[in-house]
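Subject: sequence -> structure tokens, single chain

Hey, anyone have a minute? Need the predicted structure for the following. Not urgent.
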Amino acid sequence: MIRFLGVCVQNLIICIKYLFGGNQRLKTVISQAAAISYDSLPISLVIAFIAAAVITIQVSKEFLMTGAEAYIGGTIAIVMIREIAPGFVALAIGARAGTAISAEIANMQVTSQVDAIKTLKIDPVGYYFTPRIIGAAITVPMVVLIAEFIGIAGGMAVAHGTIGLHPARYWHSVWAWMSTKDIYVSLLKACIFGGLISLVCASKGYETKGGAKEVGTSTTRAAILSTIYMLVADFLINLLFYIAK
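Reply:
Had a minute. Here:
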């Protein structure tokens, strides 16, 4: 894992040089952004809604018993914005789009398409990786922002349906507890997670050698590694912004 992390850092440096070299086309970035984030939007929103609904069911009864039902909205908002929305959305995108990136690049590698690009004096790392990393880093925060709203609104619907909490009390608690810092950190997480998933999955696919069997193996390992690196990054970001003040 440490060796592969070094490979990912080297690939990231190549992508930055490729980007600032003026070689990247906007059309390619937009197409990759659509494939990564837009196509993953439905499943991401469903996961956000279900997660918020489950958490609301778990806490509503306990809060009602202690007379703290007015704080349900704030609790759901904090949980969704700080952790659930960016984390679950990133996992959904990694499972869907990240594995697709790894499989696509691995297939290019085993079918010698990467070698063909090299004969044209084009850096395959910059050419294949850069639009995917940029597209994910820009658009995953947008998906997370929508997922946060859907999750909070879903929590309101479940709280109203289960314990009869008035929506006005719910939203008053949301606005009282939510801060702009939480939103900024959430979007920063989403940006890092998106770029990290694309970088890790593309790097793992690029290392593939052999045939069709190795493509499947690389795709599986890419999903595992991207999840591990994402969770480590999540821990470090939380440590930086919420503990090490």
